[in-house]
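Much of what follows relies on a compact textual record of a protein's fold. An example makes this concrete, so a full record is given next.
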Amino acid sequence: MTSGIVILGSGFAARQLVKNIRKQDAQVPLTLIAADSIDEYNKPDLSHVISRDQQAEDLTLQTAGDFAEQYNLRLFPNTWITEIDPQAQKVKSVDQSWRYDKLVLATGARTAIPPIVGKELLLTLNSQQEYAAARRGLCDARRILILGGGLIGCELAMDFLSAGKAVTVVDSSASLLASLMPPEVSSRLQHCLTQNGAELRLNRQVQALTQSSTGIQVTLNTEQLFDVDAVVAATGLRPETALAQRAGITVNRGIVVNAQLQTSDPHIYALGDCAEIKRRLLPFLQPILLSSLTLAKTLLGDTAELKLPPMLVKIKTPLLPLQLAGETQRDDLEWTLASSAEGMVAKGTDRDGKLRGFVVSEGRMKEAFTLLKLL
């Protein structure tokens, strides 16, 4: 029943927070509760596991026990929290409860599963546990369909191609990475994937998946039918907000927080993929690093405000490395592209000619830091 700081979740955000708290205070009681094993692994590595022929356990960097010992905290792995009681300042599982002075929700996000017929045949790769469950099917599969041509879909497509798989990508948008950049900017990646054997079915939607004697039959909205051996959902992430919502905490797309990462309850904070900051979801490395640093100070009594500078986002597509920054998804920008054998630089400017976003690729990526200063 020790109070102190209780953290729900065990991903990158939760771990960074623990490390930042312990740099400043070695003794404040820390409790970490999560539904998984709490073993540490690098989630971005899930984009490369098939080409590297890795087992799920190969991803483990530090066991839960070693983590608890190193950072002096109490761990409760494989524990589902069923309720937050804000009045009593308690979190509860089926058979246990923990009191908190301050509670941090670092519950992450899950794969958004589209409401299609046969969705139970979809595989997801959003955690070490999910990879362990999907690995055999993916290794055995010769033909793989990736549902979604966004960030994760493109990374997985490239990884499966590198592993010698026949890859088809289906997306309802007219171009890849459509939520991040305009078609003329992503066309270089599109060309790279098709040159390496991927089949892109854009402006299409999967209507149904059916198990058949020859694999999984895929039905598109254009009434096309084809067979694959496995289907992976890469249709975006949905923040885990159910616990917060049931506790009466304000939720929009994510758990709404202010500049101190504080929710609508003064004793409860949110961090990482589940948090919505200034109406934005920021499931990227740098915002999480800055957020965990800010929140550690606040939790220890030195109230700090999160300031987010323009940040680089790296897309892990080894055959065509990409970096972007700024408001690349705005549809009112004018884009200028400079492409050569060495790579591409795309700049998006507003009506006043001010740089608002950019994308760089391959050998031109070294120009990113100069452009970042201009944002």
In short: The chain has eight helices and 28 strands. The first helix runs from residue 12 to 24. The longest strand covers residues 206-212.
